[in-house]
Specification:
Blueprint (H helix, E strand, L loop, with lengths): L7 H23 L3 E5 L21 H4 L6 H21 L3 E6 L19 H18 L3 H4 L1 H8 L10 E3 L2 E2 L7 H4 L1 H17 L4
Helix pairs in contact: 1-3, 3-8
Amino acid sequence: PPGDGLEPGFQVMHLSHPLLTKRLAPVLKACQGRVINVASEGHHFATPRTPGEPTSVFAPERIAAPTKSSLLSYGHNKLANILHARYLRDDGIAAFALHPGAVVTSIWTFPYALGFLGAPVRAIQRVVFDATASLVMKTAEEGVSTVVYLALAPLDHLDSDLYWINLAGADATMASPLARSADLARHLAELSDILLAERGLE
């Protein structure tokens, strides 16, 4: 809940995931279900607070509110999506994480960009963005295609990659050593259990 000391993005984009999957784990295993986390190439923005100490990427001050950098916070949360999927796989649940790409949605409303110049400038930004976005960005239908594919394709038709981009496994291009770390995935799972228990959400 808001005001409990944790950064809201971390609560919504990560902590809600282990809360749900922990409760559903027996069913997921019994029916051979799968979990698909929408991550992002933005996970590369995540960096340890202390160089050489990977677990410090989720140090208390990094997941506490208010965050000092929305971009850094986004990177941590998207890294957490990948690590959560990695941990679930190690626990015997079919899980994937994916990068949907840059998608044209209402999230690109620029409420912050050049806001100090007022509404007219934001209106111009909107027009320019709408005119050019379709040239370089995906439609909503294209953005969701990998999610739908991973949800509906028979598991034996999918390769073993954890991370996917554009309907294809992309583990080979996932350069972040943090995202590849099974040890960090276990650390995050343990930390998540502690944070949920502290809030009466076991």
